[in-house]
Design brief:
alpha+beta, single chain, five-stranded antiparallel sheet, 17 helices, disordered N terminus
Length: 720
């Protein structure tokens, strides 16, 4: 082997190789790091008693250099612990790997070749020439320029060091599947096959209790190595047969306490399992003869079993007591990581369900919309507070709302749900977008008040929201924003640009930073597309936020008028955010349709005593033109007459009458310059005061009030 590197060299191979001497403990073979034998075939130091892996050294360092074809070009594996590894120059590195590990390791090697980023500290098994295996910590480093290829650093690990490294690796993910997989990979150091089976309630995030242990149902969460398994064997994602689940549960709960067990030989395994179907489901192959079953126990009174870990070995490698102790220690140390992943999965599922419930369902006859919500990766800090909503208002307009609540998890979800429902209620009550944002601003301030007990340590300060109201008659969109990114409007001719909204500090800002919320109105002709989104869609570390919004505008402008809007929304998200990331991605596309001119009519009347009669005349003529039924014509004429009479009597300025033919009825609107709210009193029809509103209430399916810059509009809906 080449073990005499040049002192002036700085390649990863030479740097690691030159350090070998510092990692060989005193008492090791003196020639371990200075041998000039190119084959490295001197006799190895005899292994210590009770140490089947060859030595008690905490760690021994070795190094292998590979070319672009992943063939060995040179190596330094002189330490005694590496004896038996056949690493001849020109042979594929895959020859050192167990067959089942070849695809995964080869993929990682090629990834480092292509990207040039190191892959550090993967627990890996290497195959000796006699069929035994060595557990190492393997790091893959790109070769220094101008060389080409890879340097693979190997640290041969004693079991206790491996125990520490495994525990450290298992706690790096909050995804329950990845946590189980990390545990299985660590357990493989003690056997040929390792599997982790979790209680189904743990897998789904529900959790288990002592009362449910008698009816345990196991699902295979992880299995290593990767290989083709015999028919009938349970692989990840599959449920174990009920008999197998019951047997494993009984085996690890002897004397009503969770305990590890070892079944020493194939005959005992078959005798215990009994049924051929159960044997096929649990035994990984003909060579598997003994198994250690270790329960994943959550400490408590009484303790709760989360699942079972199984390690299988060949007959010639029985489990020693010390190894069983190590297995129990590893599983005991990492069981709480499984429970943390379960809790995170449960929270993730709950928040995701809430967010999906807030997504728009269907459009109306005046607007079409589609939405896409792409959650963050499962092992992120939790599902974020992104939300969009779209709903028709009683007066015929449509509200489009998008928000981004600060933080992740249940605290953000609770705030998100509260703000979303409050915005919907206030908009349905007729408040303008700026007034709604003022109320949301106050709500965020209350939620941040620790003394109120509403926040319990969670702060929503800095949350953003944008509200758009689409009027299908005037074909205009009224917008108000609290610190949110500007929507993108695509006109029917294909021109696309973000709407020019002034910056705002967001909801809950300090008093000195607060600015009034303004309403901005933009034209949106039929065929226009409005895109509302959250920052996860346009943020990219390699681009400025303006460039990200520009990419969104380009993507939305490519939406053809007859494209299905839902497919277009998915295409936009896949173009801008093709991979899942650590922030949620939310997009709402709305295509404006509006009312046809022949379905609406507007009259402006002076506030004089003859205004009701003139309104009845105009409305009657239009309803005859629309061929409305006689009863409908009479009801609408009387309704308009009462509303105009109230406007003339209690308000000032001109009166505006608008009639809209909708898909399911007629919408009547009467606007004036007054700011008083009409209220339905408890009096009867014969009472002089409030008689008009009682008539309105009886003739309509619903009615209400909305405020404008110049006064108010009383609207009422009549079924046709």
């Amino acid at each position: 082997m080449d073990s005499t590197p040049s002192p002036s060299s700085s390649s990863p191979f030479e740097l690691v190789s030159s350090a070998l001497g510092r990692y060989v403990p005193q008492g090791a073979t003196a020639a371990a790091t200075a041998s000039s034998d190119p084959r490295g075939d001197r006799p190895a130091a005899p292994p210590a008693a009770g140490d089947p892996e060859g030595g008690r050294h905490d760690q021994i360092l070795g190094v292998v250099n590979l070319d672009k074809e992943l063939r060995i070009t040179r190596c330094n594996l002189d330490a005694a612990v590496f004896t038996g590894l056949e690493a001849a120059s020109g042979t594929p590195f895959a020859d050192l790997l167990p067959p089942g590990d070849v695809p995964t390791v080869t993929r990682r090697l090629r990834q480092v070749l292509e990207i040039g980023e190191a892959h550090v500290a993967r627990i890996q098994r290497l195959r000796r020439g006699d069929g035994t295996e060595l557990v190492v910590s393997m790091s893959i480093l790109p070769a220094a320029a101008p060389q080409e290829g890879l340097t693979v650093s190997l640290i041969a690990m004693a079991k206790r060091l491996h125990l520490y490294a495994a525990e450290t690796a298992i706690g790096t993910s909050l995804d329950i599947g990845e946590t189980a997989q990390s545990l299985a990979e660590s357990l493989l150091a003690w056997g040929d096959v390792a599997a982790v089976d979790l209680d189904f309630a743990v897998w789904t995030g529900e959790g288990v209790t002592e009362q449910s242990q008698g009816r345990i149902r196991l699902r295979r969460a992880a299995l290593v190595p990767e290989r083709a398994w015999p028919e009938g064997y349970v692989t990840p994602g599959g449920d174990l047969p009920s008999d197998a689940s019951r047997l494993l549960a009984q085996a690890v709960r002897r004397d009503d306490a969770p305990q590890a067990i070892v079944i020493p030989d194939r005959q005992a395994v078959e005798r215990l399992l009994g049924s051929p179907r159960v044997i096929r489901a649990l035994v990984p192959g003909d060579r598997s003869a003994s198994v250690a079953c270790i329960p994943l126990v959550l400490d408590g009174t009484p303790p709760v079993v989360l699942g079972v870990a199984e390690v299988w070995r060949r007959a010639d490698r029985p489990f020693h007591d010390s190894e069983l102790f190590d297995l129990q220690e590893l599983v005991a140390r990492t069981a709480h990581h499984v429970d943390l992943a379960r809790q995170h999965h449960r929270e993730h599922t709950q928040v995701l369900a809430l967010q999906r419930r807030l997504l728009p369902r269907t459009g109306g006859h005046t607007i079409e919309f589609a939405s896409v919500y792409q959650p963050a990766t499962p092992d992120s800090a939790g599902v974020g507070g992104d939300w969009v909503n779209s709903f028709p208002l009683p007066d015929g307009r449509t509200a489009l709302v998008v928000g981004d609540v600060v933080g992740h998890g249940l605290g953000a979800a609770a705030t998100m749900g509260q703000l979303s429902m409050e915005a919907r209620a206030l908009l349905s009550a007729g408040l303008a977008p700026d007034e709604v944002l003022e109320h949301l601003d106050e709500t965020v301030g209350l939620l941040d008040d620790a003394e109120s007990g509403l926040a319990a340590g969670y702060s929503a300060l800095g949350s953003t929201c944008c509200i758009a109201l689409y009027d299908p008659v005037s074909h205009e969109v009224a917008l108000a924003s609290a610190g949110h990114l500007p929507p993108v409007l695509v006109l029917p001719d294909g021109r696309a640009a973000p709407l020019p909204l002034p910056p705002h500090p967001g909801l809950g800002a300090e008093f000195a930073l607060r600015e009034p919320f303004d309403v901005h109105t933009f034209g949106a002709p039929p065929g226009s597309v409005l895109a509302l989104y959250t920052d996860g869609l346009v943020e990219d570390p390699a681009l400025s936020i303006d460039e990200g919004i520009g990419r969104l505008a380009d993507a939305v402008s490519a939406v053809h008028p007859w494209d299905t809007l839902q497919q277009a929304a998915r295409h936009v998200v896949s173009t801008l955010a093709p991979v899942r990331q650590r922030d949620d991605v939310t997009l709402l596309l709305a295509r404006m349709i509006g009312y046809r001119k022949e379905d609406t009519a507007t009259w402006r009347l002076p506030a004089r005593s003859d205004a009701p009669a003139r309104a009845r005349e105009h409305v009657g003529a239009l309803l005859r033109q629309w061929r409305a039924r006689g009863t409908t014509r009479d009801d609408v004429t009387l309704l308009i007459s009462e509303l105009v009479t109230n406007a003339v009597r209690f308000a000032a300025g001109p009166v505006t009458v608008r009639l809209i033919r909708t898909g399911h009825g007629l919408l009547c609107e009467v606007g004036d310059a007054g700011n008083g709210r009409p209220r339905l009193s408890a009096g009867g029809l014969l009472d002089d005061g409030g008689r008009g509103l009682h008539i309105v209430h009886r003739l309509t399916t619903r009615w209400g009030v909305r405020w404008t810059d110049t006064g108010k509009v009383v609207w009422a809906e009549v079924a046709r």
